[in-house]
Specification:
The complex is a heterodimer. Chain A contains no helices and eleven strands. By secondary structure, chain A is mainly β. In chain A, strands 2, 4, 5, 6, 9, 10 and 11 form a seven-stranded mixed sheet that branches. Chain A has a four-stranded antiparallel sheet with strand order 1-3-8-7, with no helix packed on it. Chain B starts with a strand and ends with a strand. The chains are: A mainly beta, B mainly beta.
C-alpha cells in the first residue's frame, strides 16, 4: 500500500511570498498532522486534522494555516514567508489519532531566501 | 511546558554491542511513548510504541522500557549493525489527540 506522499519535495521561495504544501495520507487514514523540523528546534507540532476538522494547533503564528479535504488529503499554507520559515515540513498520517503509530512522508524542504 | 531530553546528541558504538538511548521527560504524563528512526533527508519511521501501563516492549533486536515514576524510557538495540546508524527520536503522546511531543533525537553511529 502506498505511503504518505508529500509534494513538492523541494521548494525555494522569496521572503514575503506564500507557499502551499500538499500531503496525501495512506488510504483509509483519517488523521493528518503537520510538523516543522529545524536543526535548532527539532520537530515542532503545527496542527492536526481529522475528518476535515482541525482538532489541535501548535504554537505557530496565524501565517501558518491548513485544511483537510473529504478524501483526507491535506494542505498547509504559509503566508508572508520569513527566513526563519526555512525548514523541513513533515506530514504524518494515522488511522485514527492518538495511541497509534504515525506514518511520516518524506517531507518538503522549504528554503526562504 | 513539556520538556523532553534525549541523553546525548551523538552516540558512537562498535558493531555487535548494545546501544542504549535515553529519553527523559518533565511536566507531562504521557499515555504512551513512541520511538522513531530518522535517516538524513527522510521522514521519521515508527519503531515501537509503549503504553503507560507497560514496562517493556520488544521487537526483534529492539527493546524499550518505560518508567513513569522516573519519567524515563530506555531504548536498546542489541547486536548493533552499521545499518542501525541513524537519528533516533522519542515522542510522547496522549493528552492531546493527534499531537506528539518529540525529543531532539540522538544520532547513533555504529562502526565496524
Amino acid at each position: 500500500k502506498a505511503g504518505v506522499t508529500q509534494t513538492p519535495r523541494y521548494l525555494i521561495k522569496t521572503r514575503g511570498q506564500q507557499v502551499t504544501l500538499s500531503c496525501s495520507p495512506i488510504s483509509g487514514h483519517r488523521s493528518v498532522s503537520w510538523y516543522q523540523q529545524t536543526p535548532g528546534q527539532g520537530l515542532q507540532f503545527l496542527f492536526e486534522y481529522f475528518s476535515e476538522t482541525q482538532r489541535n494547533k501548535g504554537n505557530f503564528p496565524g501565517r501558518f494555516s491548513g485544511r483537510q479535504f473529504s478524501n483526507s488529503r491535506s494542505e498547509m499554507n504559509v503566508s508572508t514567508l520569513e527566513l526563519g520559515d526555512s525548514a523541513l515540513y513533515l506530514c504524518a498520517s494515522s488511522l485514527t489519532a492518538g495511541n497509534t503509530e504515525a506514518f511520516f512522508g518524506q517531507g518538503t524542504r522549504l528554503t526562504v531566501v | 511546558s513539556q520538556k523532553i531530553e534525549q541523553n546525548s546528541e551523538a552516540l558512537n558504538i562498535q558493531e555487535g554491542k548494545t546501544a542504549t538511548l535515553t529519553c527523559n521527560y518533565t511536566n507531562y504524563s504521557p499515555a504512551y511513548l513512541q520511538w522513531y528512526r530518522q535517516d538524513p533527508g527522510r521522514g521519521p519511521v515508527f519503531l515501537l510504541l509503549i503504553r503507560e501501563n507497560e514496562k517493556e516492549k520488544r521487537k526483534e533486536r529492539l527493546k524499550v522500557t518505560f518508567d513513569t515514576t522516573l519519567k524515563q524510557s530506555l531504548f536498546h538495540i542489541t547486536a548493533s549493525q552499521p545499518a542501525d546508524s541513524a537519528t533516533y527520536l522519542c515522542a510522547l503522546g496522549g493528552s492531546t489527540l493527534g499531537r506528539l511531543y518529540f525529543g531532539r533525537g540522538t544520532q547513533l553511529t555504529v562502526w565496524p
